Amino acid sequence: MKLNSIKLFLIIISIAFCICLYACGSGEVSNQQENNSATQDSIHTEKSFHRFDKTLVNKTISRINNYSNDTTQSYAIYLPSDYDTLKSFPLVIFFDAHARGKLPLKKYQSLAEKYHFVFIGSNNSQNGMQLTETQNIATEILKDAIARFNINPKLIFASGFSGGSKVACSFAFNNSTIRGVIACASPFAEQHKTVNNHPEIFLLSGNEDFNMAGMVQADMSLSDAGFNHQLFVFDGKHDWPDEKYFEYGMQWIQQNAVKQNLMSSKFLTESVPDYNSWKETHVAADDLLNQEMNDEQEFGKQFTTADIIYWKEKISGFQKCKTSKKNFALKKLCARELNCISMMGFVYSESSLNQNNLPAAKHFLEIYELADATNPDVWFLKAIYYSKSGDNNSAFASLKKSAQLGYADINKLKNENSFSSIIKMNGFQESIFLPVLKNAEKE
Length: 443
Known about the structure:
The protein is α/β, with parallel strands linked by helices and 443 residues long. It has 16 helices and 8 strands. An 8-stranded mixed beta sheet has the order 1-2-4-3-5-6-7-8, sandwiched between helices.
């Protein structure tokens, strides 16, 4: 009996020990699983939030090089001062007509700060490129931006000026990642029935911009196609809009995002203007707009055939109208007509010079100067004409005047082959190169 009691006691002790051992072992497994889980979560967090580029935080406008297979590609970037890799930010990608990626970033830097956006500007996309080329540039920039920075994938926008506006619109029409576009100074070329994406589009045009009538038409076609869109016309010419007007576009795209619960309204504290107020004060009646479009078609027909007397009469009439006491809308229409002739003067003059057709270039430059004598491009192209004609003194004087009027394309100045002799002339550095370089730095 005593032996049985001892055996029973030993069995109970053994069972209790096993239970205790199992419990401890289970606890270790459980703790190990928890530790493994915590480690995996930490690794996931590291991959999700800390894979982004921290080297540009708290810097001003920077340049990103060699981000694609093409080592000649680069873009400018501005990160708002509160940028943090731990939270995502909206993005605007800018396309300038002349590959000036830094220009819109400098111009609208305070808006990036105010609304907490990341701004990127292409240094390669420009007028004269094939559409496929510009779209590849845009695609590579977007791909790199998403990989390098913490970008909110639902708040990606594009913007462009003139030919860059067409690039931005084309990119958005064919890429569902782009939520909206702020299109400045030029309409788009796409047929809406063939596009793959229907972005929101805010059109901005100056009331002296030769593209304004086309922007009005684009606005109507967007209505017919059922797009969410808005047109705002402001006092200005063919250029990137002043900051206050571009801000209207920034407010509009954010308002739409707030309505769809994609972002907070806390940064939209200011009252938004009446976007349609331009209709009463900035745009001519339909009959005047139709007249403007007919006139521009006539200019296209006459530009290569009409003599200088014809153009002197036309230009003089528009200049008088522009400064007369006529009604506001008509005066702005005359200003747009002059700017249209100026634009055509540039295109035809540059094309003739590229083809070394100096007699034609001389004729077109004369028209260009009549229409827009204070435009630095007039004098830069005249310098090329004189240089190719062998008149280096006149070429030097024209280049100097171009620099004084604000010419800023330092790369064109350095790479123009016809200036090889002028570069060696006394005073070139002080009178031409350095002023142009300073103008470029201002942009």
